[in-house]
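Duplicate of #3305? Posting structure anyway:
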């Protein structure tokens, strides 16, 4: 026990390829139970650190478990995994946010879209995110957004004007997708909405 935390160290004695599934099943059973601390119900915050082969690396596993919980608290429903190994892009974003001005980088790519949506109460950010998630499929994007094709075409034309008509080219597209995740990471901060405030100041 450490303050209000319980820290478990699991030693794997079975096939290492199944460790995550076994931990996941244990977590699901725990979450389903009426978990209590003393007489007060408590919201569970669970983080599973990096799997390590050597016991001398336990500190690394512990630190990454703490980082997992930190990212979960920051991103809320965007992060649906208890495992550090599953957080991929959010690990990178969290690291960048600690060492660089993430706001500035996000604005470099997304400020025109952020400002447009703010000024016109638009849906360009939602459209951009969905269009990228659908790998540029206009039919699937329109279906997910519940809009007619003509509305979608108009929004895509506006995105091309704001981001450049090459925004779907491979490298630029990857950067924009990363910035979208970073933008949501910043917005989910308990400190408010730094990206929008900076972009309009």
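Output from current build:
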């Amino acid at each position: 026990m450490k303050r209000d935390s319980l820290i478990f160290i699991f030693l794997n004695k079975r096939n290492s390829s199944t460790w995550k599934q076994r931990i996941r099943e244990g977590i699901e059973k725990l979450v389903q139970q009426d978990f209590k601390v003393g007489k007060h119900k408590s919201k569970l915050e669970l983080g599973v650190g990096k799997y390590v082969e050597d016991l001398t690396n336990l500190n690394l596993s512990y630190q990454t478990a703490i980082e997992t919980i930190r990212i979960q608290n920051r991103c809320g429903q965007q992060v649906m995994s208890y495992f550090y190994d599953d957080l991929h892009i959010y690990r990178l974003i969290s690291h960048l946010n600690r060492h660089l001005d993430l706001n500035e980088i996000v604005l470099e790519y997304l400020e025109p879209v952020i400002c447009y949506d703010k000024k016109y109460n638009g849906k360009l950010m939602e459209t951009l995110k969905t269009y990228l998630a659908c790998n540029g499929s206009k039919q699937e994007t329109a279906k997910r957004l519940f809009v007619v094709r003509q509305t979608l075409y108009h929004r895509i034309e506006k995105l091309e004007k704001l981001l450049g008509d090459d925004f779907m080219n491979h490298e630029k597209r990857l950067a924009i997708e990363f910035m979208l995740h970073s933008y949501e990471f910043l917005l989910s901060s308990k400190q408010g909405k730094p990206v929008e405030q900076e972009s309009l100041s």
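Confirmed duplicate; merging threads. Confidence is low (pLDDT under 50) at residues 190-194, 197-201. The chain has two domains: 16-87, 102-199.
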